[in-house]
Every structure is written in C-alpha cells, then in structure tokens.
Predict the 3D structure of the following.
Amino acid sequence: MSVPILAARDLTKTYGRGPDRFDALKGVSLEIQRGESVAIVGKSGSGKSTLMHLLALLDTPGTGQIHVDGTEAQDLSGRRLNALRNTLFGFVFQQFFLNPSSSVLENVALPLKIAGVGPRDRKRRALEVLEQLHLGDKAKNKAAHLSGGQKQRVVIARALVNNPQVLFADEPTGNLDTATGRIVEDILFDLNRNSGITLITVTHDHELAQRFERRIYIRDGQLITSDEEHAA
Amino acid sequence: MKPLEILKTAIANSVRSKLRTTLTILAIFVGAFTLTITNGLGTGISNYIDSQVAAVGSSNSFTVSKASTNTAPGSGPQKYDPNTRVLAAGGRPGATELALSQADLSAISAVPGITAVTPVTRVSPAYIEWNGHDKYQLSVLPLSGAQPQLAAGANLDDSSSQAQIVLPVSYVGPLGFSDNNQAVGQSVLIGIDDAEGKIHEVGAQIVGIEQSSLLGVSGGFINKPLSTGLADAQATGAPAAAKNAFADATATFAPSTQAQINTMKSRLSSEGYTAQTLDDRIGTVKTVINGIIGVLDAFAVIALVAAGFGIVNTLLMSVQERTREIGLMKAMGMGSGSVFALFSTEAAFIGFLGSAIGSLVAIGLGTVVSRALARGPLSDLGGLHVLSFAPASVAGVILLVMAIAFVAGTLPAWRAARQNPIDALRYE
C-alpha cells in the first residue's frame, strides 16, 4: 500500500483548563489515501471541525502525530509549513471569508499572491479556475454583490487556484439552499473523480455523507465505527 | 509574499477605512508641519547669521592683540617695563592696552599654522563728503577677509592700486545721492587729522553699497591702498616710533580643524597674546538661537509622539477588524513575517503620507510667510529669510516621522503576526 497522504495517530486536543477544561479530541487515529473522498460526520461539538483543523495543519494537537505524505508535521519548519498550507491544501469555508470590497478575481488570486506569483500569471490562473466553475463573467464584480451559491463557488475557486492535492471543505453546503447545494456538491465530487483531488469534508448532513467513498463518524472526540444514531 | 506586493497591499489596506486613516494622518500632519517649520526657522536664521558673519571678517583668521595686563584691585600698580609700549589708555579703568611691535608681529607669524600677519592700523577719519555736499562723520575698517553683503556695486579689490570704499546704505541719502546706483562709481573725499591737527583730504571711489545688517558696524570698508593713504596722512608729523605700534593684527591661517585652531590659540596665549576667531565673537549668538530652535523642535517631537499613539490606536482597531482576514491569509500559508511586514508597512505608509503632506504645506506656507515678513516687518534686515528649507533636513523630518510611525506600528503588527490562523476559522 502506498504512503497515505494524511495519517493521524492518537490525536488529542484540549481547550481551556481547570473547570473550563474541554477535551475536544480524545485520541483519534486515521489514515487517508491519495484520491479518496472522505466525509467526517458528527454532530455539533463532536470535535469534527477540530479534527479537520488538525489534519489541515491549522492547529497543533495536544498530543499525537500527523504525517503528511509520510513526513511528520511537527518536524516541519515554519517556512515549510506555510508552503504546505499554500500549495498542498485548499480550504472551502462555510462562512466563505471573502473580502467583500475586493473583486472576485482578487479574492480568488489571494493564495497566489501569498505564494509570490507575479500579477500576470495570477490573473491568468485565477480566470482559468473561474471559467472552470462558470464564474468567468463575474471576475470583475465585487465579492459582496454575489449570491450565496456564487460566493461558495468563488471560495472553491480560491481553494483550487494553487492546484492543491487535498481539498478540505467545512460544511460546504451548510449555508446554501438545496438546489444550489446540489450544484456545489457536484462540483466537489467532479474534482475528486476527474482531477484526482483528495476530498475531505466535514458535515452533519447524512444525505451528503452518503455520497462519499468513506465516512468517518465522530462523537465526543472519539471515532465510532458506525453511524449509531442514524442507524437507530 | 513579495515585498512589492506587501507594499501594494498595505497601501490598499490603509485607504480602506478612509475616515480613520485621514484622522491619523491629520495628527501626524500637525507634528510634521511643526517640525518642518522649526527646522526651516533654524536653517533660515543660521544661514542669515553665517552670511552676516562673513560680512564682518573671514573665518580663517584671528584678531590678535597683546593680552592686556589688568591691574587687579589691591595688587598695586604694575612695574614699568621699558620694552612694552602702552597705547592711549582705553577700555575700563585699570586696564592697560599694550601695543604690538614689529617684534611681536614676527613672533606671531612664527606660530606654526599661521600663514600671514597683517597689522591693523587704526585710522580715524574726520569726515566724508561728496561733491561739496554736507560733511558727515565716518569710521572705517580695513577689509581683512570680510565679505559685506552688498545692495549695489561690487566688492573691494585689495589688489587694485585705486583707493576704494564700500559705504553702508545709510550714507547714501545724507551724502546727497539719489539712490544706491548713483553712488556707485562716484569719488568722495575723506578728511583726516594728522598728528599736528592739520586736515588732509584723501580721495576714494565708492565701489559698493552695503546692506544694512545685524552684526555689521555702521562704518565703511576700505581697501589696502585707501587704508595706506589714510594711515600715511594720519601719521604726517608723528614721531617715527608711533608708526610701528599697532593695536592689533590679523593673523590668517589655512583652513583648519577646530583642534588645530585651539592649538594655535593656546600657543598664542602662552606667548602673551589674545587670539579670537570670528566664531569666538559671534558664537554665543548662534548658541542662543540653536537653543531656542532646539526647544521648538522638542515641542514638535512631543506632537509627533502623541500622533504615534494615534497610529497605534488606528492599527490596533484595524487588526481587530481584520482578525478573520489575517487568519485566512495565514491559513493559506502567509508567514508571520509577512503579516508583520504588512501591518508595519501600513504604519510607515500612513506616517509617510502625514509627513509628506505636513512638510509640503509647511514649505508652501513658510515660503509665503517668510517673503511677506522680508518685505514687511523685517525689511530693515536685508537678506534675511526667516524660514528657509534645506532638502536634506526636510527629507530628514519625513524619515524621522516614518520611523516614529513604524515603531508605533510594531505593537499592532506583532499582535497581528502572532495570531493563530484557527482563531479566525473557529466558528462552531
């Protein structure tokens, strides 16, 4: 078997201390292979977002290790870590985090700007991705003037602009109506199937979770083998 | 992120919240404006003093006289020494001014570094007159390296054989000239008493008219031929010994460092002479003015420090507002260094805007006010520009303000840089 793109061992994460102490994760181990589509399913407060933040190297675990493509993440220097976040991972946020006063193009090109890509290449690449998501005509619009579905697609475009190998999505359809949500889902699965991008999605929506190759259920900071509640 | 991108993004960010940025810039503006004005005041006044000093004498010469023997109260009279000559007693009672002899002149020129020694002959003309008009009293001084600020005509020529004089502007009307230009080139007669009380008249040509000045004396400058002519006329009938006694001498030296000047000075003083450079005589005026400028500068810096806190506040709010954006950028792989650079560049940019606008307005306003003053209340002091702006010092002010802004920006920038990307993304 090949080296998993992401491997976690005995992850724990604790917030606060003393009486406010809250164990968000209590020893989670998992492996995700290249090209997989994985849903992390759990209720609010189950620790699913914390798990994804740890896997995406946005946060450091209390104890435990994360291996990215066989490399121990904690051994990475700040510069390597930033490069990893910038080029290997893409993030799709439920709340979009678009800069409302900038144009769609500028928002999508932000990761390239951080990577130090020149203005001309930035524009070309960002327009390519926007075309791919059928947003080419909105490139010059202000991000604030878009509908929810369009915003979510802009966020996906931003996540894809650096050609990531792993795409993290946090409740990608949570803020969208059913029809628009469906379109966004199709885009994500299409990327997984046709571009080989590893898709890791956090959701509490069981219907969405059914479309993934693999589902990881989490409750109270621990992985559970099956969706007991749904089964019940 | 590339440095140019950081600069562009910082500029774009600083204009995003216009009202807040404008208010901060205003605060910096006040400080930079004040600092530029006080700086201009300092430059203007010291320029003026320098030009006035040049009008009184050259900077690389001493005025050397014999150290006066002061009779300290209670010490009794000084013993008579047949080798010293006493000039007609002047100065305060009890002080005796000793004359310089030819031997003294040789001793002075023997001091290392001194290139030439010229005895100063005091000539005391009785009057000056032009073309039969009224006679006026006149005092004269030899040129000895002085560069009078002229209102008309040319400077004296010591190498010319013609007797020349430069008169203060105040003589023009009384002597009967209609204006400065008419006076230039005219011949005047200078009357002088000889040793027997007989009046001799010496002719001279007016070559220039001197502006009224702050430090200058209300007398005429004369060149060597005229000074020799007057001295000869004055000495007619005097005993030969008196001709070789001088009150003081001008010792010139090659341009030197302050240390070299001090060495020469102490050497002269150990040999019993008093040597003073022009700076010695005028230095105190400059010190007082520099002191005043320094105090004004201090007030301007206080204003700037206050403005610095304005910058801290503006940027802290900006960091607060943009928490999510910073988190997002860090999640996308932006390094802490870049975030720090982004915010401190923004601070420096705000500082640059404030100081550039402040300095420009100060220069514009200062130039107008300075011109108005030079025409109006200060017109008696020709050549005085109260405010003048040296490019280097204006650039210095702008850099200083930018540095203060940058320092003020480090705290917010540091807060922004150490933010955890997750803080912006934790929204459960």
User: Anything to note?
Assistant: Chain B has a mean pLDDT of 78. Residues 123 and 307 of chain B are 61 Å apart (CA to CA). Chain B is about 50% helix and 15% strand.
